[in-house]
């Protein structure tokens, strides 16, 4: 089983008491699903392109746990505290499995490219 991650790219907005409440309450919503903050609005350095938004990343044991957290009544109850004040994009993504080898992915890509010649 691969780990899973919920990644949020949040546009900066005005401060509001709802956001403080959301931040206080969110850890309690993902802990029952094995989730934890990996990144939480920490300073970042743009290496390529542009990225002015804040980043939040929560790790989970798997996609099922991440989806269960997102759909949970506990999280859905507090989500409006954020969505009323901040716009952003949020994705759920699988991590690579243990022992992932990128060279095998490259070999498959080379095979597909060979068929296009």
UniProtKB/TrEMBL annotation:
- Taking the record's annotation, the residue ranges forming a coiled coil are none
Question: In this protein, which residues make up the domain named DUF1330?
Answer: 3-96
* Short name of one Pfam family: DUF1330
SUPFAM superfamilies in the cross-refs: Dimeric alpha+beta barrel
What's the name of the protein?
Uncharacterized conserved protein, DUF1330 family
Tell me what organism the protein belongs to.
Streptomyces indicus
């Amino acid at each position: 089983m691969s780990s899973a991650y919920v990644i949020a790219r949040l546009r900066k907005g005005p401060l509001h008491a709802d956001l403080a409440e959301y931040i206080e309450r969110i850890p309690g919503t993902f802990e029952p699903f094995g989730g934890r903050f990996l990144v939480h609005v920490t300073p970042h350095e743009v290496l390529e392109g542009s990225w002015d938004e804040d980043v939040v990343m929560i790790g989970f044991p798997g996609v099922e746990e991440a989806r269960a957290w997102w759909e949970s009544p506990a999280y859905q109850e507090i989500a409006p505290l954020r969505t009323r004040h901040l716009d952003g994009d949020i994705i759920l993504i699988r991590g690579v499995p243990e022992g992932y080898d990128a060279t095998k992915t490259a070999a498959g890509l080379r095979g597909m490219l060979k068929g296009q010649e």
